[in-house]
């Protein structure tokens, strides 16, 4: 049985059909990930409604890009307070996120994200790190072109650092970066990107890292794995991601499924509801 640790089910039209496909592919649990207050509320609703078949859990958080309108409208403090209320409203909430930093750079590494925008993203992320520590929930981290800043925000405060854990989702870093994540005790989650032909560095990480820190996900409806790259993605395709990793690790699909499911259980502490 597989756990898709990162999907965006609130974007799906035919949810019943998609969940049926997931069940047929051996997906026992799906975590649907919040990206804004509005999306987080919907994620919790979807998780609460579902009672049979594939179990659904939710995370609550504000993505560095998606929640901007809400934060500008309500103010950061009120947004964080609302997230806290949503977490407390349901036992199906298993994490905070996705949150983090998303910087745009050109192919020649020129920064396109303004300093003002970076400040905004950093504040928003910092508040969600604190929230995760306070509520003792794991963080689901999104990182694009901002590794050093993410690490410094996670480690600046010792008191905080000892209390937080989580996962770097849809891994895109190299082995050196992965070692820093593992040193922090965080998990690494692979999406369909690991199957791409030009993803050699990412595949190296999947090959070398301790399997006890590995998770798998789809990030559906985005990031379909090969050979479906560019098509709409579904949680059932987490099986393709896991199958690809079996080749890198010389483990069977059952072994990868079992260990990544145990890891997800340990990190997110799913309650049987
Ligand atoms: Zn996502």
UniProtKB/TrEMBL annotation:
GO molecular function: DNA nuclease activity; hydrolase activity, acting on ester bonds; metal ion binding
InterPro entries the record matches: Metal_Hydrolase (IPR032466), TatD-like (IPR001130), TatD/YcfH-like (IPR015991)
Alphabetized UniProt keyword annotations: Hydrolase, Metal-binding
Domain of life: Bacteria
Record's GO cellular component terms: cytosol
Positions that bind a divalent metal cation 2: 142, 169
Binding sites annotated in the UniProt record for a divalent metal cation 1: 6, 8, 98, 219
Classification via PANTHER family: D-AMINOACYL-TRNA DEACYLASE
Name the record gives this protein: Hydrolase TatD
């Amino acid at each position: 049985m597989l756990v898709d640790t990162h999907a965006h089910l609130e974007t799906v039209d035919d949810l019943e059909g998609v969940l049926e496909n997931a069940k047929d592919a051996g997906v026992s649990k799906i975590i649907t990930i919040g990206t804004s207050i509005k999306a987080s509320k919907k994620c919790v609703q979807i998780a609460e409604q579902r009672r049979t078949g594939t179990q659904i859990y939710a995370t609550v958080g504000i993505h560095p890009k998606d929640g901007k309108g809400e934060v500008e409208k309500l103010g950061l403090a009120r947004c964080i307070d609302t997230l806290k209320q949503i977490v407390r409203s349901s036992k199906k909430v298993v994490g905070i996120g996705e949150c983090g930093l998303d910087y745009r750079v050109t192919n020649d590494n020129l920064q396109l994200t303004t300093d003002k925008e970076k400040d905004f993203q950093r504040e928003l992320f910092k508040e969600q790190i604190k929230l995760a520590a306070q509520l003792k929930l794991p963080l689901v981290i999104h990182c694009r072109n901002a590794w050093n800043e993410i690490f410094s925000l996670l480690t600046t405060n010792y008191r905080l650092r000892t209390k937080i854990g989580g996962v770097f989702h849809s891994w895109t870093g190299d082995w050196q970066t992965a070692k820093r994540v593992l040193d922090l005790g965080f998990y690494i989650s692979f999406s369909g990107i690991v199957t791409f032909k030009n993803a050699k560095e990412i595949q190296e990480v999947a090959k070398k890292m301790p399997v006890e820190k590995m998770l798998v996900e789809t990030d559906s409806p985005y990031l379909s794995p090969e050979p479906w790259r560019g098509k709409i993605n579904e949680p059932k395709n987490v099986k393709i991601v896991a199958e690809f990793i079996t080749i890198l690790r010389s483990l069977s699909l059952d072994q990868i499924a079992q260990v990544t499911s145990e890891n997800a259980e340990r990190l997110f502490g799913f309650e049987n509801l």
